[in-house]
Every structure is written in structure tokens, then in C-alpha cells.
Amino acid sequence: MATGDHGATEAVMLEESVKAEAKQQGHANDDHSPPSQSLVHEKTNNVEADEKAPSITPDGEEPSDDDKRHLRKVGESLPVSAFLIAFVELCERFTYYGMGGLFQNYIQRPFDGSQGRGALGMGHQGATGLNLFFQLWAYVSPIIGAIIADQYLGKYVTIVVFCVVYIVGLFILLLTSLPVSLAHGAGLGGFITAAIVIGLGTGGIKSNIAPLIADQYKRRKMEVKTLPTGERIIIDPSVTIQRIYMIFYLCINCGSLALLATPYMERDVGYWSAYLLCLLVFFCGLAVLLLGKKYYIVRPPEGSVITNAFRAIWIMIKRRSLDAPKPSYQARLGNSQVMKWDDKFIDELKRALIACKVFCFYPVYWVVYSQFSNNFVSQAGDMRGHGIPNDLMQNFDPIAIIVFVPILDRLVYPLMRKMHIRFPPINRITLGFWVGSLAMAYAAIVQHLIYSSGPCYKDPLCPASEDSSGTAQGNHIHIAVQTPAYMLIGISEIFASVTGLEYAYTKAPPSMKSFVQSMYLLTNAFGSAIGMALVSVSVDPKILWMFVGLSCASFIAGCLFWLCFHHLNDAEDELNALS
Question: CA-CA distance, 161 to 203, in Å (whole number)?
């Protein structure tokens, strides 16, 4: 029966029942008296309302589309194992930034036998070039770690193995940074060897520890739940994953605060003392990683996932079709060749490629991000420090993150979800690009102020700025003026970098978590390569225009990123349907 006929029949039946009620109540004297029209309308409207009322999804079931539009999405508490892994990452980042933050001075300034003045004496350009080489290698090597983890050892064992590699590199750096080693010319060779070994170690850890921490959370599908207050909510795994990576990034930046200590150790004792502290803290992280093994959810390796993925991608390119590697597709073409994968594997690979495609604009952002650990340090050295080491200013980057992450995670994002204001990953990443653009614009303003100040103007650290001991003091502008540039970089990381980690995990199929994470990290290597190409303009007075150019590039990249990928916002829940 048609819906309209059904509704009309019910209306006639209602009218007849009303007539009967009216007779019984004495409201009509004969069968021809008009029925109570208000009662007919009331009951008819009630039937229509019942027909239109949405069905209530039982607790524990997946939400309907109507639920997703009207119910608040919330996350869950994190497992203890996630916090243990976050602590391991804190220790690794303490080591990485605690030593890496000193590299610019270590390479740039000459060794003169005194404490903390320098080591290799390769100048501003040489320091920036070697520093960027280290960063490039540290973000290429995650591919090696991903292949070993996904195909052979699994994430946990791979992390342990690369921790040992990391420790070997730290020992090389420590021993060759001793004053006696520097005096005998072992500094440069030791640094390059240590940079290669440490870069390999950190890469193997980075590609696996980010997906490992999210693996500790088991839920993979949305679920409706009624709170004790009576409010119906949706438990959304993507909200919890977002929180995991916010906390993960918070721990990364707590580790970054190593730069509160190591610049003073560099200045007052020597570089070797700072590198020794980093080594000891790294041992603490390794101890927690080993002792906490029984608490971790450890997934076994998936076999030849990475190599099969590259073979399938090659077939996609040759055939110009994403479905070309599917056995079913090949069968329709009459190809009897036996593939090493099934149709589901290709569907998962296509999903992984969506995530990788989103990362194509990230190298521009990483060029901007890398400025805080090299050119910003040199810029601070061109100003009056007033007792503050120039590489100490880097701490304002993690401080900004430590302040704003809890505000966003506990106040801003929950309020936006409660008000049903969408702020999906593509929009967050776009905002990260734009805030990075502001950081570069401010850095350009600071550089202009330096060039406008005496005694050296556009030639900072000239002999006119030297004190009685012969140490150049920089132009007459306070080093604190640089603070907002670091803080803007930090805020941009919350939107661009944290969301990138989240996107790499949530959009990757289970068998390719480390692989997609390594592809995301590889974009940082491309950023370092671009930065190396810009070394020739990282000198006075050209560097001002480099900052201006990076500001424009980051803003334009953000605009193009949104134009290319904003349509993925509408498919966010579908893409997050983790298997």
C-alpha cells in the first residue's frame, strides 16, 4: 500500500473512532452530527509525528546518520601503555633536541680551547647545510624502519633495535666532542659519523613509535552510549586518536625542553657534558620501553607488505588505473598471472594513497618549521643576549605547544564538538600552514629591526660589536624580541604536525601503519632538501627576503592545500572506519 493511501485510511478510521467517542460522551445527538474536528486533527498529527520520529539507536550500536548530525562526539580514557610509550618518546625527543639544538653553534663557531665557544668553525652557511643534512637523513631513514617493522620484526622489536643504533651514535658524538678530541681534529669526522648513525636510529624509532602508541587503543568503530545524566553521546575512535596524538605531541615538546639545560651546559662546561646528559636520558627511555613490554599491545609483522605495495603502485602507474593490480581486474582482462595479494589489499593500498596524497604540500611547511633550529638560532646570535644563550630561545617553541595543547584538547575542541562546529583535519592543517606563514612574516620583521640597529646594521657581529674580551655581542636589539616567532611556529605545529600524525594513522590500513607514517615523515626530508637549496641565501642581508619568501610560500601552499583536499572533509567518517 502506498504511504499516502495508508495515511488516508488511518485518518478515516480516526474520524470514525472520534464519532463513536463523541456519541459516548454525549457531544452528538444523532449520527449526522459533525465530529470534534480538533480531536481528529490532534490524533492525526500524533500519527504523523510518530511516523516522522527518528528511531533511537540502542546503546552499544553504531550511530545512524541522524545520530551523527545531532549527538555529541566524545573520546575515551587512554590506556596506561599509551602513556608509557609517550614517556619513551619524551626521552628520545629530549635527546634529539637537547643535542640537535646545539648543532648550529657546534658547527658554526670555531674551537678556541675555551668552554662552550664552538667546535668545528664552519660558519653560518656550513652550519645550516650540515644541520639540514642531519634533518634530511633523519626523515629519510624512517622508510628503512617501516620496512623492517612491517615485513620482518614488528614495531616494538624494531624500536628496540634502532634504540641500540641510536646509542652507538650518541657515544660517537660524545667521545669526539671532548676537548682533547676537538684539539686533535676528530670533531668533523666524528660529527658526520654520529649524524649518520643517530639519524638512522631516530628514523627507525620515529616511523614506528607513532603508530605503536595509537595501536594501544582498541576501539575501531563508533558507538552510541547514554551517560548517567541521560545525555546520549557517540564514542568516536577518531576523537580518542586525536587526543592520543595531542598527548603524544605534548610529551615530544616536554622532551624538547632539554634546551632549557643543554645551552647552559654547553656554555659553562662544554658540549660533551650536554651530549652526556642526552645519552643518560635516552637510557631512561630504553629502560621504560623494555620493562613495560607486558603492558603493550604488540602486533606481529604483516609479511611483504611494503614491497608488494610498491609493486602494486607500479602496476597502477603502468595501467593508469588504481584497480589494475586487483586479481579480479586482471581476470576480467584474461590475465591468468597469480598475484601476491588479493582485492582487499589493493583497496587498503588505495586508502593509504589517499593519506599520502594529502601530504604532498607538507615539504613547504617543513622548510618553515626547520627555521627555528637553524636560522632562528643564528638570528638570535645577531642580537644582544643579555646573558641568555642564543640557542636557549628555541624553548619558546615547545613552551607554546605545552600551553596551548591542553587548552585546545580540554576546552576548545570539546566546546566546538558540543556546538556541532566542525573542525576536520584538512581545515586544521590549512590553519597550520597559515600560522607558519605568520611566523615567517614576523621573523622578517625581526631581521629588519636587526639591520636597522647599530653598531653593525646589515653586517651583524662586525668588529664594532666586540666586547673587551673580543667576543661579538650583536646589534643593539634585545634577543627577547624573537619570542613570538618561536611561539607562532609552535602553534602552527599543533595544527599541521599533530594533525599530520593523526591523519597518517587513521587513514592507513592496519597492515600499512608504519609505511604511511614513514611517507609522512619523508615529506620532512623533502623540506630539509629545499632548505639546503636555500643555504646560499641564508646570509646577511639576503636572509630577510628568504623569510619573506617562505611566508608567502606557506600561505599560498595552505590555500592550495585546502582547494585540493577540502572535499575529503565530507568523507572523514567513512575514511576513519578503521578495520
Answer: 12
CA distances to 343, 431, 435, 485 from 555, in Å: 40, 9, 8, 16
Q: Which helix (H) or strand (E) holds 477?
A: strand 475-478
Helices (H), 304-391: 305-319, 327-332, 343-358, 362-370, 375-381
CATH T-level fold of 65-304+340-575: Growth Hormone; Chain: A; (1.20.1250)
Residues 6+ apart with CB under 8 A from 33: 22, 27
pLDDT for the residue 21: 47
Task: Measure the CA–CA gap between 211 and 84, rounded to whole angstroms.
Answer: 14
pTM of the model: 0.76
SS3 string of 172-202? HHHHHCCHHHHHCCCHHHHHHHHHHHHHHHH
DSSP type of residue 540: T
Cell representation of residue 461: 657581529
Q: How far, CA to CA in Å, does 460 sit from each of 122, 374, 546?
A: 17, 17, 17
For residues 553-577, average pLDDT: 87
In terms of residues, how long is the chain? 579
The pLDDT tens digits of the residues spanning 402-428 come to 999 999 988 999 999 888 888 999 999
Q: Residue 13 — very low, low, confident or very high, per pLDDT cuts 50/70/90? A: very low
The full set of domain ranges for the chain reads 3-52, 65-304+340-575
CA 388 to chain centre: 31
Is the Cβ–Cβ distance between 250 and 93 less than 8 Å? no
DSSP 3-state of 470: coil
Cell, residue 440: 615567517
Those residues whose C-beta lies under 8 Å from the C-beta of residue 273, and which sit 6 or more positions away, are: 265, 266
- Find the radius of gyration of the CA atoms of the chain: 31
**Confidence band, pLDDT 50/70/90 cuts, at residue 117:** low
